[in-house]
Design a protein that fits this description.
- The protein has 5 helices and 12 strands.
- By secondary structure, it is an alpha/beta fold.
- The chain has a single domain, classed as Rossmann fold.
- The longest helix has 16 residues.
- It is globular and about 40 Å long.
- The structure holds glutamine.
- Glutamine binds next to α4.
């Protein structure tokens, strides 16, 4: 199994380390041809405006959309923003997933925080996942083909899945819990068998 991590900006190295520690081959993606032999792709956290601008510059927008039409893609934090259909702001988006997202949804005072989060579908799902939020976005709406996988105590949706697409508001690569990466690897494996 070979998984790419979009390496234009942001926390891509941590995703690569986590994937390798779980036994997947992981590579950095910067150019359209880097997508050619991948089974899945992670779009990391960082700054969504920068990631979008660079993706346009590198001619990656259409190749990423075609890739996502067929293969599993997981967007974390800025990656979730980049995958969204609608964010109410003018910046380059892939727009592949039917979600509405609000950027920087937790205000300036609470720039970053960590919570124990219950996430549907991961291994040992009755054990909370240590979720690190950094100037994080939240999900405002998830389309009818999607499902919310995790909510904060106040009901705010922070993880969702729609078919081969996964999004999380937080940074799972910054904790040492590999269960979400494992979950994504199962999605990739399932898609490989199906194709
Ligand atoms: N606030 C960033 C954005 O709007 C996302 C932050 C992150 O990825 N940690 O793109």
């Amino acid at each position: 199994m070979k998984i790419g991590v979009l390496a234009l900006q942001g926390a891509f190295i941590e995703h690569i380390k986590m994937l390798r520690s779980l036994g997947a081959a992981a590579v950095e993606v910067r150019l359209p041809q880097d997508l050619d032999d991948l089974d899945g792709l992670i779009i990391p956290g960082g700054e969504s405006t920068t990631i979008g601008k660079l993706a346009v510059q590198y001619g990656l927008m259409e190749p990423l959309r075609s890739f996502a039409a067929e293969r599993p893609v997981w967007g974390t934090c800025a990656g979730m923003i980049f995958m969204a259909r609608e964010i109410g702001l003018d910046q380059p988006l892939l727009g592949v997933m039917d979600i509405v997202v609000e950027r920087n949804a937790f205000g300036r005072q609470i720039d970053s925080f960590e919570v124990d989060l219950m996430i549907d579908g991961i291994a040992e799902s009755d054990r909370p996942f240590p979720a690190v939020f950094i100037r994080a976005p939240r999900l405002i709406a998830v389309g009818r083909h999607g499902q919310v996988l995790a909510r904060l105590a106040d009901g705010t949706a922070v993880a969702a899945r729609e078919g081969q697409w996964l999004v999380t508001s937080f940074h799972p690569e910054l904790s040492d819990d590999g269960r979400l990466h494992q979950y994504f690897m199962h999605m990739v494996e399932a898609q490989k068998v199906a194709v």
